[in-house]
Amino acid sequence: MKLFRVTCCLLVLLLSLVAFAFVAVHPARAQTLNPPPPSFYTCKTVGNGTICMGDRIVDHGLTGTGIICGTGPNAFEILDNSALHQYATRYYDQDGNLTRRVIHEVYIFGETINSVTGATVPYTQHDTLTDVLAVSGDLSTATETVTGENIFTDPHIGQVIHNAGRFVTAPDGTIEFEAGRNDFLDNFAAANQRMCEALS
Asked: What is the pTM of this model?
């Protein structure tokens, strides 16, 4: 009986050493993901690959848009000030290559600002971005689908710009599909003009 116990203990020890050696040679799948997820993600192995999930607050702060309204001494740049809550998921195949990612964004606040006078037009926004990669692991091959709503409303004159619906962008940046209302995509110049007038 004593010999049997000793044999069992030795067998357990041997199996433990084999398992340790396997882990040392084959690191966790999350360490070899391509491309690696940002640090705010937490990854777990599933039957056919790896899923990584995370959420964070993104504060864009005050940034220039490069859009200039007016000319001469009356010219001003449209600034943006916004923050959002982002919920993100990445899907990797059994080889550790990214196949798809989904990002949900809910804006906590958003406003456009006249860089000279400080006049503002607030906006609300929520959207979902889904990237499907034609070549696993290569983000440059992603086709992106965006759905959601983005509305700019001046408290004095009402709605200025309205974007809502769905559009699909090919890897080369061309729009493959568009549905709904999108003032920026439909007529960028006219939408900018309305924003300039609202901020003047």
From this structure: 0.78
